[in-house]
Amino acid sequence: MPPLSDSAIRQLKPTDKPRKVTDAGGLYVEVFPNGSKLWRLKYRFNGKEKRLALGRFPNVGVKEARRRQFVAKEALSAGRDPAKAHVTGPDTATGLTLAHCCTEWMKQLRKRATPGYCAKTQMRLDKYLLPALGHMPVQAITPQHILGVARMAETTGFADTAHRVVSLAGQIMRWIPIEYSTPILDATAGLHRVLAP
Q1: Helix (H) / strand (E) containing 138
Q2: Under 8 Å CB-to-CB from 67, ≥6 apart: which residues?
Q3: Could you give the angle at the alpha carbon of 13 between the alpha carbons of 11 and 15, nearest 5°?
């Protein structure tokens, strides 16, 4: 199979199961049933096979994916695990804030969701999450931070608002590692159980 190109990746159609389309040297694109396409690199470190997310297409094109692959291979040659070597560049910096991530996440949401849904989502971000946590580096956000915001939402008298805020934060927290190849804690895990039903 010839090496991938941006135009060839755009033409890849989703199926009912995730599928892999290889490039070279362990680099491949994983195509998901919802149509999203994620760059991954398969490699071995200390005798174990591992996979590294290199970013989402088309935000990361073929040229940038191969650059990140090269950086990862350089890390391997130096005896370092690419998953811990920040091979994707400045996007993985510890200063990446929740406000920045929310802005980028909303850009993607607007491509697939209705204007009304996007407006409600932005309202919850602006009213609850961003005033309290927008300035924080995403790696520093803990369950206690999210719970504090949810408790504040509970004071509105609508328990479902708190649950919606937690669910929204969870969507963004789980999106960040895929988009930025930055391992972070999903600070929302288990929080629904401690909120009023």
Answers
A1: none
A2: none
A3: 165
